[in-house]
Design a protein that fits this description.
The complex is a heterotrimer of chains A (about 475), B (about 120) and C (about 425). Chain A has about 475 residues and is of the alpha+beta class. Helix content of chain A is about 30%, strand content about 25%. In chain A, helix 10 crosses helix 12. Chain B is built from two helices and ten strands; from the N terminus they run E-E-E-H-E-E-E-E-H-E-E-E. In chain B, the strands form three sheets. In chain B, strands 8-5-6-10-9 form a five-stranded mixed sheet. A three-stranded antiparallel sheet of chain B has the order 1-2-3, with helices on one face. Chain B starts with a strand and ends in an 11-residue tail after the last strand. Chain C is of the alpha/beta class. Chain C has three domains: about 200 residues, FAD/NAD(P)-binding domain (3-Layer(bba) Sandwich); about 130 residues, FAD/NAD(P)-binding domain (3-Layer(bba) Sandwich); about 90 residues, no CATH class. In chain C, strands 1, 2, 5, 6, 7, 8 and 19 form a seven-stranded mixed sheet that branches. The chains are: A alpha+beta (about 475), B alpha+beta (about 120), C alpha/beta (about 425). Chains A and C meet through helix 7, strand 18, helix 9 and helix 12 of A and helix 4, helix 5 and strand 14 of C.
């Protein structure tokens, strides 16, 4: 058995939902751990999505999705200050490009009002273009949602995990759940990395949540992987639009959007292509062609020639298109957090609060006296004044060496990313924490240097360094 | 009579040269546009040579390897023997540009020389 | 704030040659800022030979070529700072840089030479579909790993792009014991030198597939294979021509992009074809007193031309520091690109300031055999020279004579074009 104790709660999955729940649970004096099959937090659906904090007009009134979305949106701003991750309330717009679809737009607006989205406005085409000059001249009307925002999806996920870890939640990586057995006072969780015991289990396994659920329940659920392809553009065109631009949603979701990111890039995507493979996150030519075409309808001449990378993520789409959150009826002590697709990222803070609340009702833990609700992210020297920056370099010269020249990431930041709680162990881990390698040269210049720093800090050979998973070695021995 | 086809490397034209040989002697060469093509083609079929460049492992250097080359061109069919010899050796820093790293590499009569300076360091982590 | 007559950004071949030339013209106060740990730039990792035939009339390796210029810099005792990143430059020629020892610092320069070089186009910019496993490198990154760090990036290799770096790396990986299975080139011709095709591919029986590209990348962790397909004249894959290659490494040699983020910070105008600063006959950018040379200005084929161009930039910067007034008044005649010519450097020309023999460099858009390079002053053809072959991979040159141009006081434009006859 791993760990001496019986855990109160084991959370399966270190994505944004799992980590949000872990962080909320860490407020209490319980015994918690997170099991993650990958090498790091934020490795599945949470790493490849739009990074949007949705206003909340899309979900069906009364649904869990609607509730979590609006609440999550509300919580995000204060959370971003407590946990120091990039968030911006840039406002979003839904464009209506055809006269005969105006009533659909109005219906969406009204739904938003029912869902309690603050500040919604209906604009005519002219007003919309005044607000956002590069949108299509075909825009006949638009919804403007001032509460819409953007967040760094890695920043949010990593911040939640680090804070949970600091407050005593244990994380086990490379730990894949193989079997779940109901025992007298809880669950036995068998993994490739040993057996764990827990009173409660939270299933936050993203696209695998149906597999886990179906291990313990007769009421089966089914998750389909809905792949979304994206293209990310260079900073040079990061201000092409200032709001997040949506088109009217269709049966497959909110469709392609055009948005600035919190780090000043421009992003377009996603597609919505259902795939069988739970790891099938490869981009395809059709997918990329589709984005190009759709983005071109929403904004004038989108600057796709500035693309620096394309990628795809898998949304965990449950057949009922609703968040499944709560204790499973025929499996007491097993709490689902399944079907967390868009607006899942937005909802994460609310999901954490809600699931922790459910568990607290059962356990009635005491407050964790050592709980610290704030966390400092990796220092970005670019945010400092020249004087402060010089002081920093004097104290720690590694902040004077730029490693990633595209994103201006210093050696000091990379060392911090490695040595902080749940520190980076892979090149992708460094990239998601510091942005080294995320810029226009896509790690061409910095990866040899980053690897050198990793080898030194972790006391390993460079040939042991992986990009992400355990077989993804960068170099050959 | 044996015919061989070559691409001339003299300029971007890349003329296709046809060389006719008998008993290792060039009988005729066609396809060239200029004199350089003729010279190249004749040498390439009778005595093809290359300068080999690579790296050699360094002991106590600021970098783990240093760049080297054969001081003159060596017969083309000796490239692999030369690479094997390069693979075997290690050279101690400091290293001066032009310094002989290995004498008479692969019995070619040609020395292997360093093409870069490298300082020594106390120890390399 | 520290003052400096001439700040040179970049200590690669361009920056070094510019520094030496400026010193020869009497500029005492020069500072080279280099981001890497040594001078010489990318030449340090180009350990193959073939450099310097024009400059030194002998064949040198990259590090040897660099050493010749580094020695001159040291002989002239030109100061330089290593491990120093320039973060910003302004129109007023304030340079903000940073390193471990000095922290963040500003230098007020009288003139600046931009010599930052270029970067490689990454996979992302090509939008190649598929997974994103480890094992995909730009050729230059792989070159650094092998030649400087002494590592092996992979064992079974496919290379996309037949530019010179791709060809050189095909041979290098082979000599290091890897199996290079194929070099694919999307264009119907190679962008590399003939010599490299023969000595890097043919010598080792590595096939070159023209009009082919990578259309899929397999492998979730480390690369396991790629799919190649033939492309049509619009560079779109032709269905049914797919070929599967098992490999653990994909090297990309698919183009170089001048690194002009700093230039943009000073508001310097950037050309849409070269992606480098738009310059006049003095290699001066749209901001007075800021000059550009080498691969930051336009991507060169031979380093010899970089050195030559950078020397000009260094001399011109020296001249500017001493004779500011002369630079203030610009009467610039545009140099236009006619049929077949993709770009020219410089883009404008001042007849008073031009050299008596002014070099104009350009590249063509496709392969021509037996065509003519023509220069027009307005509608009058003044040059018409037959070339055996013209190829996009090679930089071309025409020389304009000041005394000839002075005969046309009303000259409106100069045009370079390729003519079939």
């Amino acid at each position: 058995m791993r760990g001496q104790d019986m855990y109160d709660v084991i959370i399966i999955g270190a994505g944004v939902s799992g980590c949000a729940i872990a962080r909320e649970l860490s407020r209490y004096e319980g015994n918690f751990c997170v099991l993650e099959k990958s090498e790091d937090v934020c490795c599945g659906t949470s790493k490849a999505n739009s990074g949007i904090v949705h206003a909340g007009h899309d979900a069906k009134p009364g649904s869990m999705m609607a509730k979590m979305n609006v609440r999550g949106n509300f919580l995000m701003e204060s959370l971003s200050k407590e946990l120091d991750f990039p968030f911006k309330r840039n406002g979003s717009m839904v464009l209506c490009l055809e006269e005969d679809k105006k009533d659909k737009l109005t219906a969406l607006y009204e739904q938003g009002i029912v869902n309690g989205v603050p500040g919604l406005q209906l604009l005519d085409g002219k007003k919309a273009r005044e607000l956002e000059p590069n949108i299509s001249p075909d825009t006949v009307a638009a919804i403007y949602a001032p509460s819409g925002g953007i967040v760094c999806p890695f920043g949010l996920n990593i911040a939640l995990a680090e804070n949970a870890c600091t407050n005593g939640v244990k994380f086990y990586f490379h730990t894949e759940v193989r079997e779940l057995d109901r025992e007298q006072d809880g669950w036995s969780v068998k993994t490739n990395n040993g057996e764990f015991q827990s009173r409660f289990v939270v299933n936050a396994a993203g696209v695998y949540a149906d597999v886990l659920h179906n291990m313990v329940s007769e009421e089966k659920i089914h998750i389909v992987q809905r792949r979304g392809d994206y293209m990310l553009m260079d900073h040079a065109v990061g201000d092409y639009v200032s709001h997040t631009i949506f088109q009217l949603p269709d049966e497959k979701g909110k469709g392609v959007l055009v948005t600035p990111t919190t780090h000043g890039n421009l992003m377009v995507g996603p597609t919505a292509i259902d795939v069988e493979d739970k790891e099938g996150n490869q981009t395809t030519q059709e997918g990329l062609d589709q984005i190009r075409e759709k983005a071109g309808r929403m904004v004038v001449n989108p600057p796709l020639w500035e693309v620096i990378t394309s990628f795809a993520g898998l949304r965990a789409h449950e057949d009922g298109h609703e968040f499944i959150i709560g204790e499973v009826k025929d499996a007491p002590g097993f709490v689902d957090c399944a079907g967390i697709e868009s607006p899942g990222l937005t909802s994460a803070p609310a999901i954490g609060e809600y699931v922790a609340g459910l568990l607290q009702e059962h356990f009635k833990w005491k407050k964790n006296p050592e709980f610290t609700g704030t966390r400092k992210g990796i220092l970005n020297p670019g945010d400092l004044s020249p004087e402060e920056r010089n002081q920093l370099i004097k104290e720690n010269p590694s902040y004077g060496t730029i490693i990633c020249r595209c994103e201006n990431v210093t050696e000091g930041e990379i060392i911090d990313a490695i040595n902080r709680p749940l520190g980076a162990r892979t090149l992708d881990g460094i990239k998601r924490r510091t942005r080294a390698g995320m810029g226009r040269c896509q790690s061409g210049f910095c990866s040899p240097k980053t690897m050198e720093i990793m080898a030194r800090e972790l006391e390993i050979s460079q040939t042991e360094i992986c990009k992400s998973g355990p077989e993804s070695f960068i170099l050959k021995k | 009579m044996e015919k061989r086809e070559l691409t001339c490397i003299g300029c971007p034209m890349g003329c296709t040269l046809t060389v006719t040989m008998q008993d290792k002697e060039v009988v005729s060469l066609t396809g060239n546009t200029c004199k350089r093509g003729d010279i190249y083609g004749r040498k390439e079929v009778t005595n093809p040579t290359r300068i080999v460049t690579s790296t050699v492992r360094v002991k106590n250097g600021e970098n783990p390897v240093v760049s080297v080359k054969t001081a003159q061109d060596i017969p083309k069919d000796k490239i692999w023997a030369c690479m094997e010899a390069i693979h075997e050796i290690q050279v101690e820093a400091p290293i001066q540009i032009g310094q002989v790293v290995l004498k008479n590499v692969a019995d070619t009569g040609v020395d292997l020389i360093a093409t870069k300076n490298q300082r020594a360091v106390e120890s390399r982590l | 704030m520290t003052q400096c007559d001439l700040v040179i950004i970049g200590g690669g071949p361009a920056g070094l040659a510019a520094a030496v030339a400026a010193r020869k013209q009497g500029v005492e106060d020069i500072l080279i800022l280099e981001r890497d740990g040594e001078l010489g730039g990318i030449l340090n990792q180009c350990i193959h030979n073939g450099f310097g035939l024009h400059t030194f009339s002998e064949e040198l390796t990259g590090p040897e070529y660099a050493a010749r210029f580094i020695e001159k810099v040291q002989e002239e005792a030109i100061p330089y700072k290593l491990h120093t990143m320039v973060l910003n430059i302004t129109k007023e020629k304030t340079v903000t840089a940073m390193n471990r020892e000095d922290g963040l610092f500003d230098i007020q320069a009288k003139a600046i030479v931009l010599a930052m070089g270029c970067r490689e186009r990454p996979r992302g910019a090509l939008n190649i579909p598929g997974y994103r496993p480890a094992g995909i490198f730009s050729a230059g990154t792989a070159q650094r790993l092998v030649n400087i760090e002494g590592f092996m990036p992979g064992r079974e290799v496919v290379i996309l792009g037949s530019g010179d770096i791709g060809l050189i790396m095909a041979r290098r990986m082979t000599l290091k014991g890897a199996k290079v299975k194929v070099v694919a080139e999307v264009m119907p011709y190679s962008g590399g030198l003939k010599r490299n095709i023969v000595q890097c591919l043919d010598d080792y029986n590595i096939p070159l597939k023209l009009s082919h590209t990578v259309i899929d990348i397999q492998g979730k962790e480390r690369l396991t294979g790629v799919t190649l397909a033939q492309v049509d004249e619009n560079r779109r894959p032709v269905p049914g021509t797919e070929i599967q290659y098992k490999c653990d490494t994909l090297l990309l040699s698919v183009g170089l992009i001048p690194e002009n983020e700093l230039s943009k910070s000073a508001g310097i105008q950037i050309g849409s074809v070269t992606r480098g600063p738009v310059v006049n006959e003095s290699l001066e950018t749209s901001v007075e007193g800021i000059f550009a040379c080498g691969n930051v200005l336009h991507v060169h084929d031979l380093v010899d031309y970089v050195s030559e161009e950078a020397s000009m930039a260094g001399e011109n910067a020296a001249h500017y520091i001493k004779n500011k007034e002369m630079y203030a008044a610009r009467k610039e005649i545009p140099v236009n690109t006619g049929e077949g010519v993709r770009y020219t450097v410089p883009e404008t020309l001042d007849i008073q300031r031009m050299r008596s023999n002014q070099t104009l460099r350009f590249r063509v858009g496709s392969v021509y055999t037996g065509a003519y390079v023509s220069v027009y002053l307005d509608d009058k053809r003044i040059q018409h020279k037959k070339r055996q072959v013209l190829a996009p991979g090679e930089m071309e040159t025409v020389i304009l004579k000041q005394e000839e141009l002075q005969k046309y006081p009303k000259l409106q434009k100069i045009t370079v074009r390729i003519e079939e006859e």
